[in-house]
Amino acid sequence: MEETVPFKNLHSREYQGHKKKGKVKDVELKGHNDSVDQLCWDPKHAELIATASGDKTVRLWDARSGKCSQQAELSGENINITYKSDGTHVAVGNRDDELTILDVRKFKPIHKRKFNYEVNELAWNTTGDMFFLTTGNGTVEVLAYPSLQPVDTLMAHTAGCYCISIDPLGRCAPTTSYLLDYLPKRCSDKNNHSGVLSAASLYCARYFAVGSADSLVSLWDITEMLCVRTFTKLEWPVRTISFNHTGEFIASASEDLFIDISNVQSGRSVHQIPCRAAMNSVEWNPKYNLLAYAGDDKNKYQADEGVFRIFGFESA
């Protein structure tokens, strides 16, 4: 049986604190003063969650108390955020196609780079030495980390690529002819510290998934950089996707008024979470089947509610 988790018996909880601009004066204590465009869980601390907002700040929250513990103000309206797999760095993208990487311990920027093309969601591989950018050109740009030097460009979709998620079941595998032919010879040197990817490092995850404006989610074999499957449940441009901690399920969302949860291996939908508005971000907890999600929910005055919810609790 594909559905090993009783999703139909689980519920969502709501977390408030992101207020519409002008409603609060003390931003640090009261929360974001604009909409939350994306969120992500700390991969090493299951109770912590980071949010990116149009108010130019990035914030770190304790999901147990609902309190904001840290914040950083950046240069633009933030729309994308992701953690490095070891939890030490956070990457943030803004509407001006600028990438900022923060050191989590100090919560201060350590890298900044401006791109001359539309940059959407970001992701590290499981070992943290490969960095992905989805672009409005329908490509996925693969960069070495921390050098951020180009490694490959994948023609992923016929329309813009909006989001990306990395399979958490990272496993190193033998080198294939694809990488041996592509990567520089010095990459095979075990003592290479140039910032260029080693051949073996590209195999530390089975898959990555990409969501596109063409309403499709594509599943890619990271060892061969080839598309192996597509998910077709959504009818609108895919805004956000996320693998669960076991790599068994993938959640995806758009302007469709539901979040789809599908089995990764079969491609079949196993559950759908009803929504009241288009979703901006879905993110599975790194240890549990808890799915955080945030969207364009409005209050009775048609202002942004500034809330996010977590699905997966046995009681509401």
UniProtKB/TrEMBL annotation:
Repeat region (WD), residues: 29-71
Keywords: Repeat, WD repeat
GO biological process, any: mRNA export from nucleus
Taxonomic superkingdom: Eukaryota
SMART domains the UniProt entry points to: WD40
TM region(s), chain numbering: none
GO CC annotation: THO complex part of transcription export complex
Region described as Disordered: 1-24
Anaphase-promoting complex subunit 4-like WD40 domain location: 234-285
Gene3D superfamilies: YVTN repeat-like/Quinoprotein amine dehydrogenase
Similarity-based family: Belongs to the THOC3 family.
Name used for this protein in its record: Anaphase-promoting complex subunit 4-like WD40 domain-containing protein
Annotated source species: Rhododendron griersonianum
